[in-house]
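Reminder: ligand-aware prediction takes two inputs, not one.
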Amino acid sequence: MRSLIDIKELSTEEINELIAVATDIIENPKKYSEACYGKILATLFFEPSTRTRLSFESAMCSLGGKVISVSSADSCSASKGESVADTAKVVSCYSDIIAMRHPKEGAPLVASMNASVPVINAGDGGHNHPTQTLADLLTIHRELGRLDNLTIGFCGDLKFGRTVHSLITAMSRYTGIKFVLISPEELKVPSYIKRDVIKKNNIEYVQTTDFEAVIPELDILYMTRVQKERFFNEEDYLRLKDRYILTPDKLEFAKPELKILHPLPRVNEIAVAIDDDPRACYFKQVYYGRIMRMSLILKLLEVNV
Ligand code: CP
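Here is what comes back for the chain with phosphoric acid mono(formamide)ester:
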């Protein structure tokens, strides 16, 4: 039995297999419509979500399975003090696979150590978000046809943005990758990501606060929201939240083949006027997230179609 807590648990071959199955799902959806008949997915979301919870549920429905759901911490017995470990043991009796989001870093790992079914980390605090990364990888693969030889700009909240940490970890295995890390001083990539991932893999990178200066060199621009819910102090959030806003004028010198990604939700860091630009990929990314979660559920349930 296999869980997915961190994207680094997947080998490059397994990522390629997940992308290949996702591609087949896109081309032959009917083939998969009963693949998980009789299986139950439990979504345990102790933090708000639109995309991740609903895309997991939509994925399981599209595979012919069923879904049970906790959509907030205050609607379940966690609010009475039940531990993550006990919750995982209990929900294992009701389901074949669990997707868990939790504000505490490491909570899905604790769940996986106590569950008797696979557990998928659907986002833990400011730490990791491996299934968003699978969505990002499929988006990049379909839009650019490759996962190597890319200059990737990450812009915004690189400190608390768990999708950034997971995507940096995933992309660090490919050749010819350069990271351009664009953030205010206070929201720089955590030192453990720089030390244990970027430097350890000898990845070329630059850190900058000057967004406009670096846009022309990017193949991918990964915009992120400033994560209000992770700040200790509202004053700091208000000071930093509007620091980087992508507007059409900033794209004047960008590559025509640039791809703009964003894990969403967007607050105001990408102007709505960008949505019609052919370089904007963030709503396609949402669709690919559902497909990659279908592919992942099949893998962890060991269902071959
Ligand atoms: N990208 C993402 O995790 O979105 P949600 O918070 O809506 O799930």
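The first strand starts at residue 40 and ends at 45. The two ends are 19 Å apart (CA to CA). We will return to this case in the review session.
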